Amino acid sequence: MEKEINPEDLDKMLEADGGIEGVMLQLEQGEKDNIFLESHQQEWKKQYPDKWIAVYKEELVAIAATTADLYRELEERDIPRNHTKVHFLSTKNIRWMLERKTNERRNQWPRLCGTTTN
Predict the structure, then answer these.
(1) pTM summary value
(2) What is the rounded CA–CA span in Å between residue 70 and residue 86?
(3) What's the rounded Cα separation, in Å, for the pair 48 and 32?
(4) Cα–Cα distance for residue pair 3/24, rounded to 1 Å
(5) Are strands 60-64 and 52-55 parallel, antiparallel or unpaired?
(6) How many helices (H) and strands (E) does the chain have?
(7) Are 49 and 19 in contact (CB under 8 A)?
(8) Which residue has the higher pLDDT, 110 or 4?
């Protein structure tokens, strides 16, 4: 489903993140965080097997057994969830897939599911 957004509404939406410049900075920081996560992933898998981790501004900021605990820690430390890279350090091969689910009102939403492949 496509929806056209007029420029004034787009400006209002982006305003909370510092306008287009702020969004661009967040995208750049997100890319740096991805690179940081990838460069440390194998090391962290050994240190924190089967744990959830969070990376923010090129720093490992939280480690937890569940996403609920991880998000609670982020909230306690006042780290913005929407700008944090969250990753599961699995010791198993997991195949992730995005499913489309429909509820009783016929609304659809994506759901991420994982299955072990070995």
Answers:
(1) 0.70
(2) 9
(3) 22
(4) 22
(5) antiparallel
(6) 3, 5
(7) no
(8) 4
d(C-alpha 89, C-alpha 50), whole Å: 5
The token duo for 72 is 């609670």
The amino acid present at 81, given as its one-letter code, is R
**CA angle at residue 110 from 36 to 14, to 5 degrees?**
60
Residues facing residue 116 across a β-bridge: 94
Sign of torsion over alpha carbons 23, 80, 36, 70: negative
One-letter amino acid of 39:
S
Contacts (Cβ under 8 Å, ≥6 apart) of 2? none
Token readout for 30 is: 């997100």
pLDDT band at 20 (very low <50, low <70, confident <90, very high): confident
Domain assignments of the chain as residue spans, ordered by start: 7-92
